[in-house]
Amino acid sequence: MKLVLTNDDGIDAPGLKAFEQVIRGFGSVIVVAPESPNSGIGHKVTTKAPIKVERAGKSRFRITGTPADCSRIALTQIAPDADWLFAGINQGGNLGADIYMSGTVAAAREAALLGFRAVAVSHYVAKNRQIDWDLARLRVKSLICRLISERLQPGCFLNVNLPHPADDETDLPVVFCSLDTNPHGVHYYKDGNQLIYDGDYHSRPRQPGRDVDVCFSGQIAVTQIPLELGNHNTKPAEGQLNP
């Protein structure tokens, strides 16, 4: 099995390293990642400037572009015969409305648009805590094994969010759930003639049983996201990957 790995935190990010260690157990891995962090960049693509592609080691490529650029280049120029594209592990959650802003999710979405199976994986970071990447690696390993054995619906990709519980339990509950449709709490404070964002990610509103609530409750949230957002027939039933 040939697997492409990318992210939005950059090719040197610890989450990418942890994820690479996981998926190498499932096949050959080609890393195609941005040379620097591109968090919050959404689905931006580069069309008016050249994109430099440099080798960064065996089966590793450093791209001077966005996460979506990485998917495009990986799947059309480097590994057009790839079986899956994985994006992550992102340092920080990509829940609910985050999917429209996240570079990590955009990389998976671009792969799905190109007709490939794709999974974005992110790790919520609890307030005043650091991610234990070794623990994250163990938590995601069995999940990836399960996901790649499932039949992903055409025109969909998967968005996974790891919680940040206080214990070191590795076998966390996995919940297949819908996307939370609440907006972020949008708050700013004024500094002269400037407005500075002052939202609190941790206290964002939650819809019961949806991805924000599931992840914040200490469970792994898996959401199947259709490219046709208006097509309600592609939404998974609660607790199911294939309705």
How would you describe this structure in keywords?
single chain; 243 residues; alpha/beta; Stationary-phase Survival Protein Sure Homolog, Chain: A; 9-stranded mixed beta sheet; two-stranded antiparallel sheet; 11 strands; 23% helix; globular; disordered C terminus
Describe the structure.
- With 243 residues, the chain is α/β, with parallel strands linked by helices.
- The protein has one domain (2-234): 3-Layer(aba) Sandwich (Stationary-phase Survival Protein Sure Homolog, Chain: A).
- Helix content is 23%, strand content 25%.
- The protein has five helices and eleven strands.
- The strands form two sheets. A nine-stranded mixed β-sheet has the order 3-4-2-1-5-6-7-11-8, with helices on both faces. The chain has a two-stranded antiparallel ribbon with strand order 9-10.
- Strand 6, helix 4 (133-149) and strand 7 (156-162) form a beta-alpha-beta unit.
- The longest helix has 17 residues, at 133-149.
- The radius of gyration is 17 Å and the shape is globular.
- It starts with a strand and ends in a 17-residue tail after the last strand.
